[in-house]
Amino acid sequence: MKKGIYFLVLLLFISTLVFTAFSIRSFGAPPNSDMDNYIIENGQEETGANNIISGVVYDYRGFDTLGEVTVLFTASIAFMVLIRRLND
Amino acid sequence: MSEGPITKDVLVKTVTKILIPPIQLFGLYVIMHGHISPGGGFQGGVIIASSFILYALVFGYREGAHRAKLKIRQFLEPLGPIIFGTIGLICILFSGNFLQYSAIPILANAEIAATAISLVEIGIGITVTAVIFSIFMAMGGRKTDG
Amino acid sequence: MLLNQNQLPILLVLIPLFGAYLAAISVLFKKKINNILSLILLSLSFFLSLLTANHVLTSGDISYHTAGLQPPFAIEIVVDPLSALMTIIITSLSLLTVIYSREFIRKELSDKRESYYYILVLLLTGGLNWFVIAGDIFNMFVGLEILSISSYSLIAIAQNKEAIASAYQYLLMGSIGSSFFLLGTGYLYIMTGTLNFADLAIRIAQLGLFNSEAIFASTAFIVTGLSIKGAIFPLHVWMPDAYSKALAPICALSSGAIIEAAVYALIRITLTVYGIEFITEIVPVKTILLWLAGIAIIIGSLYAISQSNIKRMLAYSSVSQMGYIVMGYGIGTQLGLSAGILHLFNHSIMKACLFFAVGAIAYKTGKTDLYEYEGMGDKMPVTMMFFSLAAISMVGIPPTNGFISKFYLVWASASSTRWIFAAIILVSSLLNAIYFFRIINKAYFGGGHEEASRDEAPYTMLVPIGVLAISCVVFGLAFNIPLSLIEPVAEKLMTLSLII
After folding, report:
1. Nearest CB to A62: which of B34, B99, B109?
2. Side-chain half-sphere exposure of B51, counting CA atoms within 13 A
């Protein structure tokens, strides 16, 4: 019974992924490319980084990057607390 | 993993000793050139951490813990976000928005503003190195002081 | 003034996070300052959140562009009255948690683990603030990650086997929730090429994506993911186990802020990105959630009655209370939405107070089972009085805040002629009364008067309980204060129509 439910949920999940795969736009053909174009055209000028990816990661979406580093830091604190045996 | 070295093979030890400096140099290169070429703090940090992990694997857990002490790692772990956040806050003090590097007078020129990105990447590299190696040591070791 | 008022939201995020980084360094040098440090920083952020609310009410929403670049390209932070209300809930609760933890944690955890506890609380506060003020769906995910990882570790920090096992269960379910949220974000990004909430809404309408299966899937994934995080029936199964084993202040913070924030995000995303027409007519998210909420209210209350461990009972009561909030949202009128969000605000006060009180009793006497509560009214009169006040509020007896929001909910369901839900709320109030009055009855009239000598909890624990219990009454009378922050947003969200 329980296994059947798990199997049904899994089936639902997989079929969602498969069916939606057909309605997603094809690769390399974005419906809206104005965002990409804006960053390609103005990225270097606005951020000063020659590598557009760095410009996006550390400047346009720098706040996200701060968050990612914080996630890493949180993980290390979690390790300190839970895995590494503290000298209790 | 045992506490001592996993191998007594001279060949492995010698090759590791030769290999570690280039790995770390390459890691530093990836971090420092992040704003020009592919790479950045996360990637370079993992490369440098891998050199430490290699060292700990070959020369043993205790030797690895001795080379990169827990206290130093603990100090380095929050350093990346502190550098990142401080640069962001300095921008606020100069009445710009958070992370608006060009608000800082020295960095007003966009060309120079890229140095702020380098600084941030160095910080992230430090944090990633410390965290990845700490996680390896925490999961690998049986000792309490890992 | 040095700081522009528009810089307030970013400081709400950065102050707790910076505190956490500095506290992590301070662990290396001096062990005992983390409590004071977090107390100061959280008081500061509480003050800033009040300033933010004031600023938002007087001079309109704050739209903050990080990096000083244009929003759809750079990350935007949006603070409207509702997110200001959420930051007030979060910062005030974590401040009270830190005050409460001073004595509590010293008894429960070792010195070293104690200092890490405060780092994690600071990270959790920063992550929650980040989560509620985000104006960008991926940025919201980053906040979700910070708050989830710190909450998993906080549940497991008690370090007994059951706590770790239940935290592991929470970790598994929470990770599924997070990855569903990320999958939904991915679908949205691949279809529209943007992540900003306002921009997403415009582009979905412009590109005519309302019939696209990918957008349906994104709705399903985001709603499911956030339902796991928000413990919405039937995805609440992690909660009773986690809460019965975790430390009491963490239960209070978690049921008072974390699951609330998840439901807030659910309301925010479904109403701003997809719009009210989409989620009522095209994908019936609201109807499904409405019926699930109706079932959750009854089932949660019934389960709560059958529990004898009080923390477990309160966890099941949270399931039913989350049902009220989601029901308000699912009714689908402006009145219903404001009633639901008002209940969200009130529930965080009441439930945090109850968990704090239960924790104080366990701290003093070690009793966690409701059949052991005999004579507690004589033993710890002040704590028990505050507990009863919050319990009365939970049942919904005037003049407490629980009455106001339940009244609003009944009114909202009656005015949209959904009589069955009005009936459910009334029946559930009765069930609430059964399980709360059972405790009050045991504590005051259950015998055991003889051996009871007065042994009250320390002041640092009584103050947070008292503040919350008194605000139950205060916001029962002055309910227009939260409503003044809720109603403009409810009106804006319900009239936002983007289907062209």
Report:
1. B99
2. 20
Three-state secondary structure along C78-110?
EECHHHHHHHHHHHHHHHHHHHHHHHHHHHHCC
The alpha carbon of residue C23 is apart from the nearest alpha carbon of chain B, in Å, by: 9
User: Closest Cα partner for C345 from C231, C493, C489, C482?
Assistant: C482
Q: Is residue B111 part of a domain?
A: yes
Chain B residues near residue A45 by CB distance under 8 angstroms? 110
What letter does residue B98 receive in the DSSP assignment?
T
Contacts 24+ apart (CB under 8 A), C473-480: C473/C389, C473/C393, C473/C399, C473/C400, C473/C401, C475/C345, C475/C346, C475/C349, C475/C401, C475/C404, C476/C393, C476/C398, C476/C399, C476/C400, C476/C401, C476/C402, C476/C403, C476/C404, C477/C399, C479/C342, C479/C401, C479/C404, C479/C405
Element (H, E) at C280: none
Instruction: Specify the number of domains making up chain B.
Output: 1
Residue B145 lies in a domain: no
- d(Cα C468, Cα C486) in Å, to the nearest integer? 20
Shortest distance between the Cα of C21 and any Cα of chain B, in A, equals 5
- Return d(Cα C131, Cα B66) in angstroms, integer: 39
Asked, for residue B146, whether it belongs to a domain, the answer is: no
**Low-confidence winner among B91-105, C321-335, C393-407 (lowest mean pLDDT):** B91-105
Q: Which two tokens stand for residue C498?
A: 């983007």
DSSP A24: S
Which ipTM did the prediction report? 0.91
DSSP structure class, residue C6: G
- Rounded Cα distance between B54 and B23, Å, is 10
Q: Is A84 helix (H, G, I), strand (E, B) or coil?
A: coil
Structure confidence by residue, pLDDT tens digits, C374-396: 877 788 888 888 999 999 998 88
SS3 C134: strand
Give the burial class of C281: count Cβ atoms within 10 A of its Cβ; 0-12 exposed, 13-18 middle, 19 or more buried.
exposed
Q: Give the predicted TM-score (pTM) of the model.
A: 0.93
Contact B74, B66 (CB under 8 A): no
Q: How far is Cα C135 from Cα C9, in angstroms, rounded to an integer?
A: 11
Rounded to whole angstroms, the Cα distance separating B7 from B13 reads 8
Q: Which residues, other chains included, contact A46 with Cβ-Cβ below 8 Å and sequence gap of 6+?
A: A55, A59, B110, C69
Report how far apart the first and last C-alpha atoms of chain B are (Å, whole number): 12
What domain range includes position B82? 10-140
For C222-239, what is each residue's pLDDT tens digit?
999 999 998 888 888 888
pLDDT tens, C67-105? 777 778 888 888 989 999 999 999 999 999 999 988 888
Q: Which residues of C touch B81 (CB under 8 A)?
A: 17, 21
Partner-chain residue, chosen from C4, C20, C66, that has the shortest CB–CB distance to B99: C66
Residue B75 lies in a domain: yes
Residues in chain A with CB shorter than 8 Å from the CB of B113 are 47-48
Q: Which pLDDT does position C99 carry in this prediction?
A: 92
Indicate the angle between helix axes C161-192 and C137-156, nearest 10 degrees.
170
